[in-house]
Amino acid sequence: MRRKDREITDFDAIIDIIKKCDTCRLAMNDGNYPYIVPMNFGLDVQDGQVYLYFHCAMEGKKLDLLRRDNRVTFEMDCDHSLILHEEDMNCTMSFESVIGRGTVEFVADEDKYEALMILMRHYHAEDFKFNTDMIKVTAVLKLTVTEMTGKRRKKIH
User: Entry's PANTHER family (predicted)?
Assistant: First the structure.
């Protein structure tokens, strides 16, 4: 990272940023070019290991790519705000972000309900009674994070 003054290495601070984000972008290997897709996600941390959960249709390009190569890179960001420096006649953005890598596995049918509940909790909707019949036609993915880093530029008041 070029701007070490903006790097976040504290695990809990990175987790706090993830909790504020509502979209995670997954980048997969598609040969000559990466394939990236924005997804809703759920966060689970067990004994210092970070897991991200996603749901999607049972077929499609991302699933085909993951079956060929389950290594992914992910990115999420939040707290965007324009910072204007009128005296210097320039501007920038404040933000917080997390970038990382890991491997994706398909969640077994018997574990999908709990994984989907983790996803719902991320959006503060854990008491929503969703139609469990949809589980059998929903793919659920589990990303085991192998490395991640955070970055922050905050607006100075």
Answer: 5-NITROIMIDAZOLE ANTIBIOTICS RESISTANCE PROTEIN, NIMA-FAMILY-RELATED PROTEIN-RELATED, FLAVIN-NUCLEOTIDE-BINDING PROTEIN
Question: Rounded CA gap, 59 and 2, in Å?
Answer: 39
Count of positions (residues) in the chain: 157
User: How many other C-beta atoms lie within 10 A of the C-beta of residue 40?
Assistant: 15
* Closest of 123, 128, 94 to residue 18, by C-alpha: 123
3-state secondary structure the chain: CCCHHHEECCHHHHHHHHHHCCCEEEEEEECCEEEEEEECCEEEEECCEEEEEEEECCCCHHHHHHHHCCEEEEEEEEEEEEEEECCCCEEEEEEEEEEEEEEEEECCHHHHHHHHHHHHHHCCCCCCCCCHHHHHHCEEEEEEEEEEEEEEECCCC
